[in-house]
Amino acid sequence: MTDTDTPLQPKKKGLTRRQKRTLSRGVQYAVFAAAVIAFAATADWGRLQNQFAQADIAKQMFPDVITLALKNTVLYTLSGFVVGLVLGMVIALMRLSSVGPYRWLAGVYIEIFRGLPALLIFIFVGVAVPLAFPGTEIPGGTYGKVALALGLVSAAYMAETIRAGIQAVPKGQMEAARSLGFSPAKAMVSIIIPQAFRIILPPLTNELVLLFKDSSLVLFLGVTLEERELSKFGRDLASTTANSTPILVAGLCYLLVTIPLSFVVRRMETKAQEAIR
């Protein structure tokens, strides 16, 4: 080796991709933990407990919050879901029809009712329908109005979901049914639609969760004390007691239903993906 020669320097190795991911994940956890600690250290828990967690006020809500408010919320949701499912099926079939006016009407309905806020639909059902048809009462009173309003809102979304499910069924299923002597209508009802519903069951269940929360808009229809749902029930008691504990309890009642339903949706989606594999 001459004086001009320099020894070879070892190459510096950087972090591997796996190490970088681990480091990034550690930083994210640290930031999250710091945010939680900062929130816990700066929040005034005494005032929060005084405003949102008064046990004596919460006890006053039972059993009515379950036997009345939660029961009405479930009834409103299920009735709206049934109306939306039936109407959505009709609109989906119109959307797939070979008759041009049917497709046009279905498309207009979907675009309008998907674009309008659900609040406006409730106001339309509660105000515009009685004005347009004087002396005409929607069957079922408030329950019928809520079912119609929620059904009109959800039908637009369900129609697109059902249409996608029908189109996801292999075309060979219809061809096989026709070769066995089924008419197009009978093949659709007996073969195609049942398979489509197995495909779209998770998104339909997710729509049920959304309807459960949208049922809180029933207060804009004007309800009696016996027709109140969770949100109205909680707001009324919060106004009476000048405390927000009833609103918190009502929110927890929503979670009692929505969390299990969300878990069911995830399980169904997982099973559907496993079936595809």
TrEMBL record:
Pfam families referenced in this protein's UniProt entry, alphabetically: BPD_transp_1 (PF00528)
Keyword Transport: yes
Record key words, sorted: Amino-acid transport, Cell membrane, Membrane, Transmembrane, Transmembrane helix, Transport
Disordered: annotated span: 1-20
Transmembrane segments: 26-43, 74-94, 115-136, 142-159, 180-201, 247-265
Domain ABC transmembrane type-1: 70-265
InterPro entries documented for this protein: AA_ABC_transptr_permease_3TM, ArtM/GltK/GlnP/TcyL/YhdX-like, MetI-like, MetI-like_sf
Location of this chain's protein in the cell: Cell membrane
Biased segments, Basic residues type: 10-20
Topology of this chain in the membrane: Multi-pass membrane protein
Tree of life domain: Bacteria
Family membership noted in the UniProt record: Belongs to the binding-protein-dependent transport system permease family. HisMQ subfamily.
Protein's recorded name: Amino acid ABC transporter permease
